[in-house]
Design brief:
Blueprint: E1 6-13, H1 21-24, H2 44-47, E2 70-72, H3 85-92, E3 97-100, H4 105-114, E4 117-120, H5 123-135, E5 140-144, E6 149-152, E7 157-159, H6 164-172, H7 176-182, H8 184-197
């Protein structure tokens, strides 16, 4: 997993609440291999009409957002099923950070396991950020995990919280197994002392 420290990137406003995992990647694409095309399945049915043409009305189809890496969305982002592919498809299409008032619990955990930073900000601040992005298409936002801040061109510094252990894993680019392995010497030392104090366990 790629570490996440600070990201300054074009941010796209997605004024939709309850974005579910089937909107992120429709179920029929789940059998597809995770190859170079995988990112193109993101929001497929919102991005395309029934004839497969791109919808002009969908924000991510606008040219200024082709290189966006940050998404500012509505509440309950990533709700629905537990499919981890909902995070893969975001990551493979270039997104490393989603800012929203709330997230589906499983999506939130999956995002942190795969290097996509989910930032929770109050709903009023998300609305404010989307309005600022609407007024400044193609503008960048900085998501700083070290400082736990989001800074946009409107000059405001917005602070967010994240569980310290999850923050450490994101900063180091480690999933749960990876973080556990960094503590292997301490684990082995404990096991040696534990076994030495209880020799009858080896009989």
């Amino acid at each position: 997993m790629q570490p996440f420290t600070t990201l300054t990137a074009v941010a796209a406003p997605l004024d939709i609440t309850n974005v579910n995992t089937d909107m992120l990647i429709p179920a029929r694409f789940l059998r597809k291999p995770r190859d170079e095309r995988y990112g193109t399945y993101l929001f497929h049915d919102l991005r395309h009409d029934e004839d497969g043409r791109l919808r002009d009305s969908f924000v991510l189809n606008e040219a200024v957002y082709q290189d966006a890496k940050i998404l500012v969305a509505g509440a309950n982002f990533g709700c629905g099923s537990s499919r981890e592919s909902a995070v893969y498809v975001l990551l493979d299409s270039g997104f490393r950070c989603v800012i929203a008032p709330s997230f589906g619990d499983i999506f939130f955990g999956n995002a942190l396991q795969n290097g996509v930073l989910p930032v929770v900000l109050p709903e009023a601040e998300c609305i404010e950020l989307r309005a600022w992005l609407d007024a400044n298409p193609g503008a960048t936002i900085t998501a700083d995990l070290q400082a736990q801040t989001v800074v946009a061109g409107d000059g405001k510094v917005r602070r967010f919280a994240l569980d310290p252990l999850r923050r450490e894993r994101m900063l180091k680019g480690l999933d749960e197994i990876g973080l556990t392995l960094t503590r292997l010497p301490a684990i082995e030392s404990f096991e040696q002392h534990y076994a030495a104090a209880r020799p009858w366990l080896d009989r």
